[in-house]
Amino acid sequence: MVIKFPEGLQPFFEGLYNAVDDPSSGSIISWSWNNKSFIIWDYREFESQILSRCGLIRCNDFLGFLYELRRWGFKRARGSPHRFEFEHRDYFKKGRPDLLKRIQNKAVATSRLKFLGKDGREKELADELHHLRI
Prior knowledge:
Elements (H helix, E strand, L loop, with lengths): L10 H11 L7 E3 L5 E4 L2 H11 L8 H10 L3 E2 L8 E3 L18 H28 L1
């Protein structure tokens, strides 16, 4: 199945989503049971097989990949028995590649909120809620 990604998407997200969604790499990386996070089952195989082929451009090794995850707001899934299970608030879900466009670099998102001030943040949150209801 060909996945339709939003135009202008960061290559990191497209590569990551493709890797997680690929059933042939399920023993290395896959969606979790709730389809809202992903699990890296074998980080050595992930580093040698997945990072090199899936377009995760800025990642040469597993530590670089972990840095990129943090940079884009991914966190370890709380309460997970899996060492390498990661999630992103609301924007990394199975079957919803359209949400990937909403992920922002943490530094950019923080400076944007500071720039907007209180009134701007309230409007942005209201817009966000409206968009989620649609």
